[in-house]
Amino acid sequence: MADKLLLHICCAPCSIYTWHYFQHKGFKIQGLFFNPNIQPYRELARRKKALYSLAASEKKEIIYYDDYPLEEFLSMAMESNTDRCAICYQWRLKKTAAYALENGIPYFSTSLLLSPYQKHELLKKTGEEISEEFGVNFVYSDLREGFQESMEKAKKAEIYRQGYCGCIFSEKERYYLSRNGRS
Q1: Is the pTM of this model over 0.70?
Q2: Which phi and psi angles does 137 have, rounded to 5°?
C-alpha cells in the first residue's frame, strides 16, 4: 500500500505536474486548497472553480477551505519585519501539516514547488521546520523543470491560468512596478 501525501495546492495549473510527479514517486495523493493570500476574492473563487473542474475530471480527492481570512493575512504581511513570502509559506504549510497530522497522513508537500517564481530555498527551509514542529514529513523536490509542461497541459485543457502568485504585493510587482520600469 502506498504512503499518503497531502499536497497543498496553490492553483489547478501547478497541481497538474506536481500531482503526477508525486504519484509516480509512489504516493497516494490527497489535495488541500488553502490560500488566504489570494486577492481579490473573485480571483480566489476563479482559482477554486478551476481546481474543482480539474479534480472532477481527473477524480482527485481535494479538501477545500472556504474561510477567507484576508484581514489576518494582510495584517501579518504588513506587520512583519521578515519576508512576506515567508509568512505566506508558513501559514499555508502549517495548515497543511496540521491537517495531515490530524488525519494520519505521514507526508505533505506543496504545488508551489513547481513555480520558477517561488523562493525554493525558503520553501524547503519552511517545510522542514514545520515538519519538525508537527512530526509530519515534508517532501521537497525541485519541480521547476515541469512548469512549462504543466502550463501547456492547463492551456490545452482550457483551465484558468493566472498571471501572478495571488497576493496583492505580487500583483503590484507584476503590473505596477514593471509598468514603471522597476522590479
Answers
A1: yes
A2: -75, 125
